[in-house]
Amino acid sequence: QVQLLESGGGLVQAGDSLRLSCAASGRTFSTYVMGWFRQGPGKEREFVAAINWTNLGTYYADSVKGRFTISRDNAKNTVYLQMNSLKPEDTGVYYCAARKLSMSIRLGEYDYWGQGTQVTVSS
After folding, report:
1. Which of 55, 64, 75, 116 has the fewest CB atoms within 10 Å of its CB?
2. How many CB atoms lie under 10 A from the CB of residue 33?
C-alpha cells in the first residue's frame, strides 16, 4: 500500500515557475512508476507526466513537453514536477499517482492517488 501527499501548488502569473512535490509512504517505493495528472475546471482528469524506477525513463503529454520536468528521489520517497513557463491553461488540481510495473499514461492503470494540489496561473 502506498499513500501520497502533494504539495507546492499556488497562484502564479503566466511565465512563472512552480515545483510540485509528492511525498510517498509505503514499502518498495522505488519499484513503482509515478505519474502526475491534472484536472482543470469543468474538464476531465488528464495525464501530464510519468517516470519509471529511475530518471532515465520519462514521458510527457504534448501540452507540457519542453516546459515540465518530472523527477524522483527514491531516498526521500518523493517525486517532483518542475513546471516552467506556466500558462493559464495549466490551471487545475494536480494529482500524484503510483502504479506497479511498467510505464503508463492511462489514468485507470494507476493504483494509488493523492488528494491533489491546486495550481492557478493568471494571465
Report:
1. 75
2. 22
